[in-house]
Amino acid sequence: MSRLLAGICMLALAGLAGCKATPPGKFESRVMSFGKHHLFIGNKSQKNPLPDNHDTWNDGKEAFSHYCVACHGMDGQNTGVPFADHISPPIPSLASKDVQSYTDGQLKYILDNGIWPSGMPGSKGTLSDDELWSIVVFIRHLPPAGSQGVPDMYSH
Amino acid sequence: MKMKYILVSVLMFGAALLPLKSNVGAQESPRRIEITAKQFQFEPSEITVKKGEPVVLVIKSADVAHGLRFRELNLNVKVDKGGTAELPFTPDKTGDFVGHCSVFCGSGHGGMTLTMHVVN
């Protein structure tokens, strides 16, 4: 009986160790990046219906500030986000080549549906289509890293 | 005698203008439509207005802060928590326009819409 209990405990410990949030290796990252860009994230050809101008950028900045900033920072580059590197996979800078190489349609798809496996949630219904498309414009023209300060929630 | 003639003329002119003035006032008085905004809907969710007819949308918040924006018509109004705000305008084109809540109000914010039909 005690052997059985010990076995269950060891299996549980092994399981917990497997759940530890460790950064993905290079191979894992490459495979996932390829899969996301070419297989899993659709809507590649949809164009942004909103004009790419300062008014839309301002709308996007405001919509982004509602809750995207909790993970991506005010600048979309994780400034001031204390856990950005501690979750798996780490939160990417939205200015990175990996993110910027998505088409506008794919970025909208990600905003609508989120990305699995990652902590990125879908926002369809929480934000309107107009707000989501304006966020795409904001992502295309991110302010310089650190220029927008730290999100309020992390500065108290 | 001349003075009396002038006085009567002035009074008659004034009396002639009086009904004209009240008519003008009645024509310019815009239609008011009351809309309640609450998480996560507008009530009513559809309204119909006439092209060229001045209208005032009176938005009342029943809970948190909300807004109403018609991007295509360049109209936007924000209303404080529990407050009232007015959006006066004159529709200048016909069609169906969808307005969205323009102040983030929670998880269903993105689906909070008001459809406005503008007819001739």
Salient structural properties:
heterodimer; A: 156 residues; mainly alpha; Cytochrome Bc1 Complex, Chain D, domain 2; 49% helix; globular; B: 120 residues; alpha/beta; Immunoglobulin-like; three-stranded mixed β-sheet; 1 helix
CATH architectural group of chain B: Sandwich
Shape of chain B: elongated
Q: How far is the first residue's CA from the last residue's CA of chain A?
A: 52 Å
Percent of residues in beta strands of chain A: under 5%
Overall mean confidence score, pLDDT of chain B? 86
Please count the helical segments of chain A.
7
Class from helix and strand fractions of chain A: mainly alpha
Q: Could you tell me the CATH topology label of chain A.
A: Cytochrome Bc1 Complex, Chain D, domain 2
Radius of gyration of chain B: 21 Å
- The CATH topology of chain B is what? Immunoglobulin-like
The CATH first-level class of chain A comes to Mainly Alpha
**Strand elements of chain B, count:** 9
Largest sheet composition of chain B: 4 strands, mixed
Number of helices of chain B: 1
- As residue ranges, the low-confidence spans of chain A are none
Can you walk through the features of this model?
The complex is a heterodimer of chains A (156) and B (120). By secondary structure, chain A is mostly helical. Chain A has a single domain, classed as Cytochrome Bc1 Complex, Chain D, domain 2 (Orthogonal Bundle), CATH 1.10.760.10. Chain A is 49% helix and 0% strand. In chain A, helix 3 (54-67) packs across helix 7 (129-140). Chain A is globular. Chain B is of the alpha/beta class and 120 residues long. Chain B has a single domain, classed as Cupredoxins -  blue copper proteins (Immunoglobulin-like, Sandwich). Helices cover 22% and strands 43% of the residues of chain B. Chain B is built from 1 helix and 9 strands. Chain B has one helix spanning 2-28; strands spanning 31-38, 41-43, 46-50, 55-61, 66-70, 75-79, 84-89, 95-100, 113-119. In chain B, strands 2-1-4-7 form a 4-stranded mixed β-sheet, with no helix packed on it. In chain B, strands 3-9-8 form a 3-stranded mixed β-sheet, with no helix packed on it. A two-stranded antiparallel ribbon of chain B has the order 5-6. In chain B, strand 5 and strand 6 (75-79) form a beta hairpin. Chain B starts with a helix and ends with a strand. The model of chain B is unreliable at 17-25 (pLDDT under 50). The interface between A and B is small, with 12 and 10 residues.
